[in-house]
Amino acid sequence: MRTCDYCGQKVQEEAVYCRFCQRELPANPELAGKRRCPTCAEWIDRGAVICPLCEHTVSADPALGKPSRLQRLASDPKSYDPRDILKEKPEKQEAPRMPFRRPAEPDFEAEFGVEETSGVYPPLRSASPFTTSPREQDPFTATPYKKAFWERKGDKAESPTSPPNPFAAAPPEQAAGIFGALREPAAVPAPPRRLGPLLLTLLAVAALAALAIFAGPTLVQRGVPWLAGLLAPGTPAATALVTPEPVMATATLLVVATAEAASPTPAGSAGCRSWDTITVDDAGQTLCAFGIIKRRFAQGEIPFVAIFDEDQGTFMIIDRLGWHVVEPGDCILARGTVELMRQTRPVIDVQGELERCD
Asked: What's the rounded Cα separation, in Å, for the pair 315 and 285?
């Protein structure tokens, strides 16, 4: 490998152009008078017959191993890309064209038995007193060409390719009728009648009839007594029976019963306070509290939390040291100092064992 004199990149020793900067490189003086061995690809002297490295016989062809240099353009010596030589394609040589020959005209006489003419009908021969004219001959006894394209209709022969004329043989009465029909305007057909409203009416009548047949007896059986009772004189109004006194009394009894059940006084809780009497103002005091728990759970690092009501700011009991086996509805008693949990609700951290109350 050698270093390019322009960009400093590594190129082959025998490189003529740098593949990085696309510039022509000067000849390598170290390779002067040398060529590559065709066996080991090493540089050896040009006149050597046997390679001193691999000891193989070297061809005497002096052009073997000689680096080829392309002729660069004089107008752009540094930007010339030798790969452009490979991109050049030889010009395509067009194949010689064959001279145009006009196709031979068909021989009508040899193929169809008639002479070539420019008209539609076959040529008419000159009339002779001893021969009949072509119109008087039977077309079915003529040549195959006449059989295919001629048709006998009375004394007049017409070509099958000619369009028919509907008014040529029509009588005057028929022609007048045809023209009269063309002059008269075409009759406009009446639009079809819409059956949508009529169909809906029929369906509604059928539904009412079915309802009267199936539900009529039931309505008569139950509606007559109801109408008789409604029209009877002296019937008291239904709203006169509603009195608010029993409802208010029941509500008062329920409130009193709920208040008594919410704060029971269990045995053995002398000197203890109920949970619903402890507030935020009791923070920092050491006291005894009891109550019937409603739910127990673990919260964060606290394994045991027992609450007596779901409302925010109500009293609860916690134990940071252990878990107690109690169920909702059990009466528990705890002793400890009242603390504030998250500055919202008072709590008692259990000191010692959590006791049950009856």
From this structure: 14
Q: Which residues pair with 332 in a beta bridge?
A: 291, 356
Return the exposure string of 46-59: e unless at least 16 CB atoms fall within 10 Å of the residue's CB, then b: eeeeebeeeeeebe
CA dist., res. 5 & res. 25, Å (int): 7
Residue 46 pLDDT: 82
* Mean pLDDT estimate for the chain: 69
How is residue 214 written in tokens? 């199936």
Tell if the pTM clears 0.90, that is, is over it. no
Q: What is the DSSP string of 257-295?
A: HHHHHHS---TT-TT-EEGGG--GGGTT-EEEEEEE-SE
Helix, strand, or coil (residue 357):
coil
Contact 340, 347 (CB under 8 A): yes
Contacts of 12 (CB under 8 A, 6+ apart): 1, 2
Q: Where are the domains of the chain?
A: 1-89, 260-356
User: Do 326 and 235 touch, CB atoms closer than 8 A?
Assistant: no
Residue whose entry in the numeric block shows the structure tokens 């060529």: 35
Residues 299 and 305: beta-carbon distance below 8 Å: yes
- Could you tell me the fold of the domain covering 260-356? OB fold (Dihydrolipoamide Acetyltransferase, E2P) (2.40.50)
Q: Quote the CA–CA distance of 55 and 242 in Å, as a whole number.
A: 132
How far, rounded to the nearest angstrom, does the alpha carbon of residue 251 sit from its chain's CA centroid? 63
β-pairing verdict for 316-319 and 345-349: parallel
- 3-state SS assignment for residue 131: strand
Name the nearest CA neighbour of 350 among 310, 312, 293.
293
303's enclosing H/E stretch is: strand 302-307
Nearest to 351 by CA among 331, 338, 341: 338
Q: How far apart are CA 151 and CA 160, in angstroms?
A: 7
Say what the pLDDT of residue 356 is: 85
What is the average pLDDT across 179-186? 57
pLDDT at residue 221, as a whole number: 73
pLDDT in tens, 295-321: 888 888 888 888 888 887 778 888 888
Is 77 in contact with 24 (CB distance < 8 Å)? yes
Which of 33-37, 70-74, 164-168, 301-305 is the most confident on average? 301-305
